[in-house]
From TrEMBL:
Residues 67-79 have a biased composition (Basic residues). GO terms for biological process: DNA-templated transcription; nitrogen catabolite activation of transcription from RNA polymerase II promoter. This is Zn(2)-C6 fungal-type domain-containing protein. GO terms for cellular component: nucleus. Keywords: Metal-binding, Nucleus.
Length: 687
């Protein structure tokens, strides 16, 4: 009921609207305002307005003073959690609590995974609720069923989600304070940073929906999940100088912003939405801190959100179907490349992964959305790049599952001299898929296809391919032993040599458009794998001349990493540090080995590594990434190696080949070698 003796509406807002600092709007012939009616509360005019304190006149406020002022404000607001409410502001000055209640068109109406004040939990097949009991879901039937706690929302006749309220979950009362604190750090540059993100990062890593993000941002930054808002700003800040106006301003405090983002992400995991996974993946592109642990958390969250399922026929908006597919595959890639880099088992199992392959329809942005501004990424190329990275990640997953599981490693070791035969048999299908993948790359993903004034992220894709091949041949190399057939031993090492040389040539071919672009989070570890592979070849060299050759190549590779990292490619610094660490291990082994083992590594090489390892390589920083070059027509089948000509003749001259240790009298024609007695076994790998 309206309060008696209430003043005229035009004189002042009601007590509730004054407290919310909202416009007080009354519908015609109504005695209470819209917001009070919406919240089913009294519309009173009892409280007196708070006195306003005049701020002292000042030309400018220094950053430290502003930070203290904001901190004090946040502390005050946290003392009154009742004032913390997420309301979607509307154009007429009122507010609603969910997107379905917005007047006019909005992409977010009927969303499942990005609701304002509710989060969802997938009802799995063994859970206590059984959606099938409700029968078939018709197009006109009721899709939401109220429960004692929350609501059951059906997306199909057999699948459903629990919708649970956000209020009451951990850290919910801090959300608006966190958002204000994030915005305070970057203001007044928020809009410019969002534009920068969608110009450079988004085309190469499209796990957001641009139109949805911009719709929310146009109303208020307070509609976002705090870690997602911060993550977008953090990645955009890496390209601060690519905006003429921003480059003239003082750059915001990145460390403080990252600290807020991580704190907020830890809170939102307790009320997970699609934005939670988006924020986590973007933070992992910014820094590799706690990468494996955060990846594990995100995978658990994603299963609860149903990101592992095919949502093609669900009763949700079409744009969300495409977003779920892109985001799900983005997490799949994160899992596989994190597994490769950390050496830990992958957490996503193919038996519980039902996502369909991405199609053009899953990417709302296309060539018509290209940004012509200097230093932008290509939208169409980014879509193709992302799709091929998904396919390559599936090949990597098969490789890891085939020869790097605990069981496979034990079986290979238990086989003794026959272990190499097992490895070659297992990796041959993977190698053939790699060849097919490489051969099918379109011309636009060539390292040499670059455009004026455009950045090019194809490097991270090509580097990922190099890392996958090196990982495969590293497994073969580690299986070689003194009991291996001499001819097969020489062939395997020769192929490994060609892979190493190809990787070195690739890194040397990187152009400024590649080095300055967006690099995937796995790029530092993938650069490091090239050095690891070269060090392994060096440690197993059979002659001093061969060892000296690899020592020289590793010195050259370290030099490339050094000059690129000192000129902005900071993602190469971890590779340089790991190269130094591995050569240090090699030196330690040689110094503690018998004279016979020590003689395999030249004295000058030992002295070189000892001296080089004492040189500081600089601290490991936060990274973002650049890359590569290869042309499909330069590819030779890895399963049919021929040594009469160089594997990649256009990439290095004959003088780079370690001629002094090349196998003598190798038949220039492709040969086939069996792994048992005789050469006609059906399970042969052709070279």
């Amino acid at each position: 009921m309206a309060s008696p003796n209430q003043p005229k509406r035009k004189d002042r807002p009601c007590d509730a609207c004054r407290k919310r600092k909202s416009r007080c709007v009354t519908e015609e012939e109504s005695t209470i305002c819209v917001l009070c009616k919406f919240h089913n509360q009294e519309c009173t005019f009892i409280q007196n307005p708070q006195s306003r304190k005049r701020k002292p006149t000042q030309d400018a406020e220094d950053p430290e003073t502003a930070k203290r002022r904001h901190s004090t404000s946040s502390t005050r607001s946290k003392k009154s959690p009742g004032a913390q409410t997420r309301v979607i502001r509307t154009t007429n000055g009122t507010g609603v609590e969910e997107y379905d209640d917005l007047e006019g068109p909005s992409l977010l109406k009927k969303t499942l995974g990005l609701q304002n004040k509710h989060h969802s939990q997938y009802v799995g097949a063994t859970r206590g609720l059984e959606p099938v009991l409700l029968g078939q879901l018709s197009t006109t039937g009721r899709s939401e069923v109220p429960l004692t706690e929350g609501t059951l929302r059906r997306v199909s006749s057999t699948e459903a989600f629990l919708l649970l309220p956000d209020p009451g979950t951990q850290g919910y009362s801090d959300e608006l304070d966190d958002l204000d604190a994030i915005e305070a750090i970057i203001q007044p540059h928020g809009k410019s940073l969002v534009d920068l993100y969608f110009r450079i990062v988004f085309p190469s890593f499209p796990i957001l929906h641009k139109e949805v993000y911009l719709e929310k941002y146009s109303r208020s930054y307070r509609e976002f999940s705090p870690p997602l808002l911060a993550a977008v700003y953090l990645l955009a800040l890496q390209y601060w100088t690519y905006d003429d106006q921003l480059s003239k301003s003082v750059k915001p405090d990145v460390l403080e912003l990252e600290k807020l983002a991580r704190k907020a992400l830890g809170d939102t995991i307790h009320r997970p939405k699609l934005s939670t996974v988006q924020a986590g993946l973007l933070l992992l592109q910014h820094t590799d801190t706690d990468s494996a642990e955060l990846t594990a958390q995100l995978i658990s969250v994603a299963y609860g959100l149903g990101l592992h399922l095919d949502a093609s026929n669900w009763n949700i908006p079409d744009w969300e179907k495409g977003l779920r597919k892109r985001l799900g595959w983005g997490l799949y890639m994160q899992d596989k490349w994190s597994s490769l880099g950390s050496g830990r088992p992958s957490l996503i199992n193919s038996a519980n992964w039902a996502l369909q392959t991405v199609t053009n329809a899953d990417f709302p942005e296309n060539a018509a959305h290209e940004d012509d501004q200097e230093g932008s990424s290509e939208v169409e190329k980014g879509r193709i790049l992302f799709s091929h990275m998904i396919t390559l990640s599936q090949i990597l997953a098969d490789l890891l599952d085939t020869v790097f599981t605990v069981k496979a490693t034990r079986d290979i070791a238990d086989a003794g001299p026959k272990g190499l035969s097992i490895v070659l048999e297992k990796v041959k299908p993977v190698q053939l898929r790699l060849k097919e993948w490489f051969s099918s790359l379109p011309d636009c993903l060539s390292m040499e296809t670059t455009k004026v004034l455009k950045l090019n992220s194809v490097g991270y894709l090509r580097l990922a391919y190099v890392a996958t091949e090196i990982t495969l041949h590293r497994r073969i190399l580690l299986t070689l032993s003194s009991a291996t057939d001499p001819q097969l031993y020489r062939i395997c090492r020769s192929v490994a040599h060609e892979r190493f040389m190809f990787a070195i040539d690739f890194v040397q071919s990187l152009k400024p458009q590649h080095l300055s672009s967006f690099w995937y989070f796995a790029s530092p570890q993938n650069f490091a794998l090239i050095g690891v592979f070269g060090t392994l070849l060096l440690s197993t060299a059979s002659t001093p001349e061969e060892a000296d050759f690899y020592r020289t190549k590793l010195r050259e590779y370290r030099w490339i990493l050094k000059i690129n990292s000192e000129n902005g490619a900071r993602y190469m610094k971890p590779a340089m540090a790991l190269l130094d660490a591995n050569t240090g291990l090699l030196t330690t082994r040689a110094e503690s080995s018998s004279p016979q083992a020590l003689s395999q590594i030249p004295t000058d090489q030992l002295h070189h590594f000892q001296n080089e390892n004492t040189q500081p390589s600089g601290p490991t920083e936060h990274f973002q990434f650049p890359n590569t070059h290869l042309s499909p027509n330069e590819y030779t089948s890895p399963s049919q190696y021929s040594f009469d000509t160089q594997y990649y003749p256009s990439q290095h001259s004959a003088s780079t080949s370690p001629a002094t240790f090349t196998p003598n009298n190798l038949d220039p024609q492709p040969q086939e070698f069996g792994y048992g007695i005789g050469g006609n076994n059906p399970g042969l790998w052709s070279y």
